[in-house]
Fold this protein.
Amino acid sequence: MVALKKFPTSGDGNTPDDTLFGHIANDLQQQGYSIRHGALPLPIALALFEHQQSLSANKYSEAGIGRHENFVKNEFIRTDEICWINGDADACKQWIDWTSKLQTYLNQRLFLGLFSFESHFAHYAPGDYYKRHYDAFKGEANRVLSVVTYLNPGWNNNDNGELVIYHHDQDLEGTKVVPLFGTVVIFLSEEFPHEVLPATRDRFSIAGWFRVNTSIANAIDPPR
Ligand code: OGA
Ligand code: MN
């Protein structure tokens, strides 16, 4: 967060950028996270909603912690199920296209050096949760920005299932985000512990991560 603050705001600083991406960049610069309701363009949100509803149960797998050989299923931490997004379906192409425009914009404005993007659909059945966690660990310089969007038409406050973003390690209160259709949440992956509270109905989201390129011994580390 601190690193972002040293960069000037858009352009000459006198012409505020009031586009959605401009607001997101300002939010990230000022507080390290951005919560924007109705931010996902409606046609993309509708296409993704239909696609996610059409995914048969066997496309999902139980979520776990870690990547590849380090993967462990951990019911103590999370109980949702996920389906990684590739560009096969038109809805997913639109999502990848939109996030790639956001990536380009944020790289230009905030010099983040975002290099790749990975994302998955997530389904939380009633009672499912994802306990307090970080999406990335300091020093690993891998996942830089987390992006979450919600595909839940007609969500009510008494449906629960909020995302709680904690502002630092000791924060026990946090900021609650209701998983409303089209809300987009973006935060610095290493800075904000967060959790998903259990809901009383099925809860659908997409979670994604912009990553920097970490090459170790000339071996490129690709998105999964
Ligand atoms: C995640 C995550 C939040 C949400 O998948 O890492 O924190 O609200 N998801 O679905
Ligand atoms: Mn997370």
Notes: The mean pLDDT is 87. The chain has four helices and 13 strands. The longest strand covers residues 116-124.
